[in-house]
Sequence to fold (690 residues):
Amino acid sequence: MKNKQDKTSLEEKYYIASQWQLMWRKFKKHKLAIFGGTILSIFYFITIFCGFFSTQDIYKRHTQYIYAPPQRIHFFDEKGFHLRPFVYGLKRKIDPVTFRRTYTEDRTKKYPIYFFTHGDKYRLWNLFPTDIHLFGVKSGGTIFIFGTDKLGRDLFSRNLHAARISLSIGLVGVFLSFILGCILGGISGYFGGTVDMVIQRVIEFLISIPTIPLWMCLAAALPPHWSPIKVYFGITIILSIVGWCGLARVVRGKLLELREEDFVMAAKIAGATDYRIITRHLLPSFLSYLIVNITLAIPSMILGETSLSFLGLGLQPPVVSWGVLLQDAQNVRSVALHPWLLIPGLFVIITVLAFNFMGDGLRDAADPYK
Amino acid sequence: MVIVLWAVSITAFVIIQLPPGDFLTSYIMKLEASGQIVDEAEIAALRKQYDLDSPIHLQYCKWMWKMLHGDFGKSFEWNRPVRDLIAERLPLTVTISIFTLIFTYLLAIPIGIYSAARQYSIGDYTFTVFGFIGLATPGFLFALILMFFFYRYFGISVGGLFSPQYQLADWSGAKFIDLLKHLPIPVLVIGMAGTAGLIRIMRGCLLDELRKQYVITARAKGVSERRLLFKYPVRVAINPIASTIGWLLPGIVSGQTIVAIVLDLPTVGPLLFRSLVNQDMYLAGSSIMILAFLTVIGTFISDILLVWLDPRIRYEKQAR
Fold:
């Protein structure tokens, strides 16, 4: 009896639940999507507070520690287990013939890791001057979790700061293509006729051009004397030039389908304006599809920026993005000697994977009545 | 198609005109930086030779006219006709593209069929994970990682398409075999993303098809599983795949450009890259023209293929 009641209440819940609640319920069932979403939220959270999470200033050069390998965090030493993790110091040896630096752990020097320590000064969100970092070692010691680069700069901090640009460029780029795609796709689908024809031809044309050569040409066209901020927006615009096509197609297809529905006719007869019909009746009915498409468009933007910056056509140092960091890894010999230079690539892969998983889950959830 | 090509040519021309200044300004800067004296008369002669002073639309018309007659202009940087430069690299570009395309289809279609037929099996999950990673890894990064591993653990560098002794040699059987030996890695790297995407599509299409009534009917009638799978569902599911060349080919050409730069392959990609960095106008314009041209032609061929493969489209056309 009780069982039956439960069932009816569940069923009732199903019928009174809004579309968004149903979608959320379905999304939660997709384990990989939840996993991807969690990773992304952690990434974005760290990115927002990247100054706090990084261990030192990203431009600070440790000339004694050029191309230092990642320092391992230890819990055990010769005396046994310590609750407070620590790193060993690094001992440098330079080969007299090849001038190659090799680093070994110096077991005599031990630097315990403290949390909420005072370190290099930075400004949180460019507003609040502070010097508190999540973790670090007392002055005199070094902590390079991801090693250092050719100028002895800490790669862990640089990777975190690079995430800020690499992750946000996807969002900004998608935002731009979202606007373009909605407007042009909306016009194309709702009005049809010649406008539709022209826009469709333009889209077909843009899709048929190989993207990377096109991006390369456009990126090379950015004036070299531009400030980093301008270049940043220039790159996002370049990325969204191709990005809007897919979105516009989805919007158009859905509009063509919905235009014939009865509720649109009803709205028209009731005297609603075109603008009102599009924004109040049509857009909300396929918003979920748009969100899916956006999620799946972000990774291609991130990959685009990374590729361009890697080639040296995108963002330029001193700005750090994952692509810029990967520029150091262009030379195979240097990668073979210093494999930790490839760490930014790992971040790119994880991020894109997470976006794809989340997009997959969203796609399944977008149609909750199926 | 002609209109698309014309649009491509305009885009290419606009793109190469976009950077402020032109080749000569950077040429002058280079000379000044190295402390050489810039000869005004020489510059003026160069300007005249390359028509840098005439209005843009005239420059475009002239460029187009010459291109239609097979004259692609001259590369400032290499001081050689663009046509020769591209002609040197075009066959290899096409070879790599075709090999990659074949590789992609050969790998993706069987895996897609397997994944759909054995949905949620261990094999399916393995391929799904690999597929996702393949989609997520940018080609140049994959190339770097491969190079790193080969260099680190086998001590060989995998860049290039030829061994040093064949680099400048004329074409011969031995050189061809050498080329075949070097091909697998670039083809694998370039084809990876496309393969991953194609597996997903093939799997999805076939799964949709397998759920249909006629499959259930056939199964109920006792048709063997193998015959059941290959007789109709696979044939129906392959059709959308054939039309994917339309987006697969731009992807391959685009991926090839950047992978070729990393792996140092003698294709059009690195040529385009260098010409862009040096503002070598005619070369850059012609390179992007050629790349887009390849894609458009490829897509056109795929359309014809599709009509040939799918009788439904053929009959529809005839009925009209």
